[in-house]
Amino acid sequence: MDARLMGLDGPLMSTLHHLVDLPDEVEKALSAPTRTYVRDARAMAKTPADVKELPGFYVFVVDMPELKPNEIKVQVEDDSVIVVSGERRRKEEEEEEKEEVKYLRMERRMGKFMRRFSLPENANVDVVSATYKDGVLTITVEKLPPPEPKKTKTIEVKVA
């Protein structure tokens, strides 16, 4: 049935129809990543790390210079992802001298950082350890023992 026959072709219906058909710019703005997401994505990309597989465990080595162990957070999410996060701050004496100091180049990144590492299925998330020495965080995750091979079952054939 045509909506015009029912008297629904007025300015109200035209406005509602226009609102339902969002312009492409509005649709893109609504689906754009948030500023926090972009900041965290950059922080993840700028935190260098190595991942090694050894016979009995996995090792994650993450560079984190000038941090204290209590400024680093290591978590296991959903029994399948290791998350390393924290925040690097300027030293207090540098903040006091801020007015006197003029930086010519500032390459050391300050602020929050985060890295996510997906764990393989054979990682034992119950046995995870983290150590921090000389600006390097080392996370060790033990592997689960390989499953025992199934024994072959022989079935006796009977004469009918």
UniProtKB/TrEMBL annotation:
UniProtKB keywords: Cytoplasm, Stress response
Residues annotated as signal peptide: none
Keyword Cytoplasm: yes
SUPFAM superfamilies membership: HSP20-like chaperones
Subcellular location, record wording: Cytoplasm
Family listed: Belongs to the small heat shock protein (HSP20) family.
Protein name: SHSP domain-containing protein
Species for this entry: Ensete ventricosum
